[in-house]
Each structure stands twice: as C-alpha cells, then as structure tokens.
Amino acid sequence: MYRCKGSQRSETKMNPSTLLVTSALYPTLMNQQFIPPETGIVTPTEQQMQRLTKLQDLAKRQPTEYITIYIYSSKSYILITSLFHPLAHNMPQHKALYLDSKCGKFVLGTNETPKPGQGELLVRIEAVGLNPVDWGIQKWGLFIETYPAILGTDTAGVVVEVGQGVTNFAVGDRVLYQGAWANDRASYQQFNVVSASITAKIPNFLSFEAAASVPVCLTAAFLGLYNANPHGAGYSAPFKSSSVGKYAGKPLFVFGGAGAVGQFAIQLGKLSGFSPIITTASLHQTRYLKSLGATHVIDRHLPLSSLRDEVKNITTTPLDIVFDAVSTADTQKAGYELLSPRGSLVVLLNPEVAKTEGKEIYHVFAIPTLPHTSKICTEMYRHLTGWLEEGVIRPNNVEILPQGLEGVVDGLAKLENGQVSGTKLIARPQLTGNVREKLSISTKQEALGSEKSNGTTQKEKTAAKRKSLFRRIIS
Questions:
Q1: Of 45, 79, 164, 166, which shows the fewest CB atoms inside 10 Å?
Q2: Is CATH 3.30.559.10 correct for 94-216+393-430?
Q3: CATH T-level topology, domain 233-363
Q4: H or E element, residue 199
Q5: List of residues 6+ apart from 271 with CB closer than 8 A
Q6: What pTM was estimated for this model as a whole?
Q7: Which sequence spans correspond to the domains of the chain?
Q8: Where would I find the beta strands (DSSP E) of 282-367?
Q9: CA dihedral over 52, 86, 207, 408, signed as positive or negative
Q10: Which of 265-269, 384-388, 405-409, 418-422 has the lowest mean pLDDT?
Q11: How many other C-beta atoms lie within 10 A of the C-beta of residue 240?
Q12: Per the record, where are the segments of Polar residues compositional bias (predicted)?
C-alpha cells in the first residue's frame, strides 16, 4: 500500500487518475501507467505492484538512476514516492548549456560536478525556470564577464550530497532555490551547489516543475515589499503571526498582476492583509488573479491616464504603495501619480521618473545573497515550505519545454518575442540528449527562423524597444 504524501487539500476523491513513472535515463520505462482508485491511500493491483517492485529493484541496481512516481489528475499531481540511490551523483562530469562568448551562441557541453563546501548542498537539478534576463545577457552582454558561462537561476531538484555543517537537509530531499551566475552555481546544467541557508524543501504535493517557478520572482516581490529602506518599501514581513494580516484596510496597487512577479506580489499582499488589492491585467485573467488574492482587476488595455478615476471608484483610502511589476517608463509615471503624498513606488527596472519630495521609489534586484538582502532572504526561505504547504503562496502556471537543456534556446526566443503570457517556461536538464563535440544548438534568430525582408521587421522593432529596458536593468 502506498500512502500519497499530498497536502490535506488533496484528500478528496478525484476522477480516476493515472500513476505516471518518469525515468530520465531509461526511455523504455517512461510513461508506464497505473490506474489507482483515488488519491489519499492507493492500493495497487497485483500487476501494478509487480511494476513498482521492478522499478524499485532497478533503482537499487543502477547508481545513476532517479525515478519519481506521481499520481496525475486533470488538475494536479501528487508525489507518491521517489526512488533515489545515494551514488546517483557519483560522476565526474555532467551536461551543461554554455553561452560560449559575450553575445555569442549557446553550446551544449559538459561541466565538472562540484563538491559542496561548508554549509552547502550538491543538488541534482530536475527543473529550471527561464527568465527574460537570460536572453538579455546573451543579446547585450549584460552582467557576465567570464566566458564560457552557464546561466539559469530558478531551480528545483534533489539533494545528492550535504556539505559540512548542514543539519536541516539530507540526501534525497526535494528542494527549490535560486542559483547564481557562476558555473558551479547556475542552473542550466544537471548539477550545481547552493547554500543551504537560501534553500527550501518542496512539499510532496508539488512537482519539481511547479517548484522551479517560484524562487526568483518570489524574491523580487518579497524584497520589493519587505526589504528595509532604501532597498525596499520596508513593510513588516509576515514572519510572525503579528505581521500576518497587519495591513488590513490598506490598499495595494500592482501593475502586471498576471506576470510571474506580479502574481507573487498579489499573494504576499494578501498574506500581509492589504485590502483592497488592485491590479492591471487582461480581463480573461480576472478569475485566476482573484483566486490569488486580488480584489479588483483593471483592464491593462485602458489608457493609463484613466487609472486614477478607476482607483477612486474602488477606494478613497490614500494609496501608499504601488508595486510596478511591468516597470516601463509609462507605468512608472502612472504609478507614481497614483501615490499619496508620502507613498512608495517599487520598480524592477531602473527608475524612470523624477522623485518629488515625500514620495519614494525603490528599485529591486532579485538576488538573495547581497549584503542588504541575505538576512531577509534567509528568513524567507525558512518560511517558504510552510507557506507552500498552507497554500498561501502558490507557484506560477508552467509550460514544460521539450528536449531538456536543448529546449532552453527556443524557450528564450519565445520570451524575447513576447510569446509567453501568464506561464513560466520550465526545462528539465536530466532529459538532455547526448553531448556532441562542438555542438552549437542555435542562436535565437536561428531558432525562430530568419523571416527578414527588405526593411525592418516587426521582431526587430520589438527587440529594439526591449533592448532599451534591459540596458537600464541595473542601477
């Protein structure tokens, strides 16, 4: 009998589900299906039990295999068991996706598998989320000075080795965290190391793919609202019961609520008690955003000049906080004008409005290891597992890319060309194909096709506009 390790929210009966076995290294065993009668307690049939036993035996015999068994329903999937051999990381090298030079091409190659240092974990990466900054780094040479370089930061995986001094994690733990721009810590690869202090365990009812949508965007929203001035708006973080719901009756306005960062700003606002929570988005997102905590959704296609009247129709309470998850010059100007005389505007890109006396502007850069972010981010990760288990923080919706790390290039091209809305793109590094010497996957232009004709294409015009944003991404 297999007990599902789902949350209490998953105890009710669902329609007949499928037990799906995923096996990265044994394609012939992938997608073997079983039909359990319900979630909660699952009693496999004799044939199902034979298959499960076969997979358990396989995991014990093969030191490089990792197998995860899920129950899938139409809307969710729940981890039943993970079969992990402690020697699964015992390999000197692993596959990695490199940016070969400044403004160069992505190349599939190998990297040395690192050893965890004091207070660190070595993690086998099962899912990595894509972020727009990654294509900005490739296109304009931002941030990175040493090449070839590995990018990628939104990470979920399995602990395979624990460094000295780590007592709160063990081999086999499923974890999520934010990687860093260093070749032993970035996440477009199959293994990396991370500090245990900025790592959280994944609740058993969440998939790796869902978990990988959380770290970077949650950090951006969290720092914007709660980091101390002048690095954030300085509201009390909801670490203690006295801070949960503290700001009841205080309105919060979020530009871009359906975006990856905006969704977390809404959820954190609800956790802190802000009300009403007003956001801009496409109206077809209204139901979803209200499920996250938004009380009012304003059509993002309305003229920005009309926002003041729209907000007045919702609340007459002075607006002390605007979180701009879009952060164009136009949205920043509109948000700043909405503020009360002593209000605060949080932006994700460089400020584009002139400050006036009394009103503050806080520019957030979502890195959890900076001197002014490490303390609050360590505390955030200590609480994150509980928030996910309770459902007060929910991951983004995700779209899973094919071909492991090889699928990252096409995914970044979709992000650059504005072809992603309301979802987080996720790659699965363990499903990467064989490394071929000097394999150049493609540039984004090759991935999407040339489409160039006489004159400037629409893609070039769009890219030119976005280039101006990325050049202002750091203060």
A1: 164
A2: no
A3: Rossmann fold (3.40.50)
A4: strand 199-201
A5: 238, 244, 245, 293, 387, 392, 393
A6: 0.78
A7: 52-84, 94-216+393-430, 233-363
A8: 296-299, 321-324, 344-347, 360-363
A9: negative
A10: 418-422
A11: 10
A12: 445-457
